[in-house]
Structures are given as structure tokens and as C-alpha cells.
Amino acid sequence: xxxxxxxxxxxxxxxxxxxxxxxxxxxxxxxxxxxxxxxxxxxxxxxxxxxxxxxxxxxxxxxxxxxxxxxxxxxxxxxxxxxxxxxxxxxxxxxxxxxxxxxxxxxxxxxxxxxxxxxxxxxxxxxxxxxxxxxxxxxxxxxxxxxxxxxxxxxxxxxxxxxxxxxxxxxxxxxxxxxxxxxxxxxxxxxxxxxxxxxxxxxxxxxxxxxxxxxxxxxxxxxxxxxxxxxxxxxxxxxxxxxxxxxxxxxxxxxxxxxxxxxxxxxxx
Length: 269
Prior knowledge:
Layout: E1 5-24, E2 30-51, E3 56-60, H1 68-76, E4 81-88, H2 99-113, H3 122-129, H4 133-138, E5 141-146, E6 150-153, E7 161-165, H5 173-178, H6 192-200, H7 204-210, E8 212-213, H8 221-231, E9 236-238, E10 245-248, E11 254-255, E12 261-268
Parallel strand pairs: 1-8, 3-4
Antiparallel strand pairs: 1-2, 1-12, 2-4, 2-5, 5-6, 7-10, 7-11, 9-10
């Protein structure tokens, strides 16, 4: 692509409506069974690709070490363009909402939109940089297995609202997985596909009983008590392996959405 371009997009957060670990694999990763869902909380990204010599500049309202966007840029080895990324983080980092992975997916989709990678290379690139990144390429609602790379998109769940609660601390994914014990594996009351079916049927009683997250076994007691308090009336759980938790609530602030990434402006120069 000879021209420069500017792309503006939103990258949405996700919830694990359920999250179980089935086993630890021989390669060191954990096999999961999960139902992923995008919600209306999002980060904002503006990306410019201009003539240059392969440099990338990332401007953000938060300092991000080992930025996955830079990793992606280095991997594609674009020698005749510079990338300028302006990122406004609204999704808490380390909160289990997939903010970094959604940013990565947004950047990959922007690369394809700008003609810097082929469409057929999108998923391979996503898989190579993070377990959750492929989900955000699809977005919406999906059954997720393997270490997160096996994504089966399903008909989006609609007309659900949630509240999100952000404790003032984060939990690293690596640290969270390291604390799991084998005797806790494969104990979810429902498989992810079964929970999806009761969501489709809008059976809130069964949704409540099927909502599960294995990582609640390792979180601070005060956070677990808050989840259990919410769970008395509504489905509630940790959002992922981080510290944030959610409650499915008809009066909730956030809604389920059908996209992981949304481009809302594209300009060629």
C-alpha cells in the first residue's frame, strides 16, 4: 500500500461467562472450557500508517510494559511504513477483561484494512501473540477451548446487561494459573455449551446456577464475599483470571455486544 491512512476503532472488553480448567497440558498451557462474551466497555485506538522506515510509536494514557502491539509490528517487518498508535485505555489492566488482547486484535484488523497483511494471515498472527486474541477477531459470543485458540463463534447473545466491579488491584494471568491445583480442575456445574443454551432460553435461574469461574478459588476473601453477596440475587462471577467481577443485572450499566473490534473511521491520505 503506497498511501498513508488513519484508522479509528473501539476494542471491546470481554467476560468469561463461565471459565473452567480441564487439565494442564504437556506443553505447560492449561486446557480451558469457557463461554466468552464481549461487553460495551471499550478502549479507543487511533492508528496512522505513514511513509517511513519501520518504526512504531505508541502513545497511551497508561504506561504499558512489553506492549503486545509493538510485538505484532515487529513480527510483520514492515520496512517502508511507520505506525503511530494513540491508545486511550478505559478497560482496567490486569482485571481479566481482555483489554490487551482486544487492543492486539484491533491492531491486527487495522493492519489488514491498511493492506499491510493479507486477510488470510489474520488468525495466524493473532494466535502467535496471545491466547485470547483470536476471540476478539471474531467478537460477540463464542465457545472457547484449548488454551484459548479454539474459538467457535455462536449466535450472539442479546438483551443482557451487566454491572462490572473493579477492585483497586490487578492479578497477572501467569500468576493466577500458577496457583491452580489439579483437584480443582473440571468441576464446573455446566459445560460452556450448556450455559450458552440456558442463556439462549433466558433461564435466569439456570444461568445463575451455571455461572462459574475456577479462579475464584485463589482470590482475596473480601472479593469472594462481594461476589457471593451479588450471587444471592443475580448470576455473578469473576470476569476471567484477573480481579474484576461481574453481575448479570437487568439494570446493569453495560450491555452484551456483537463485536470484539469496531472500526468507525477510515481515511486514506
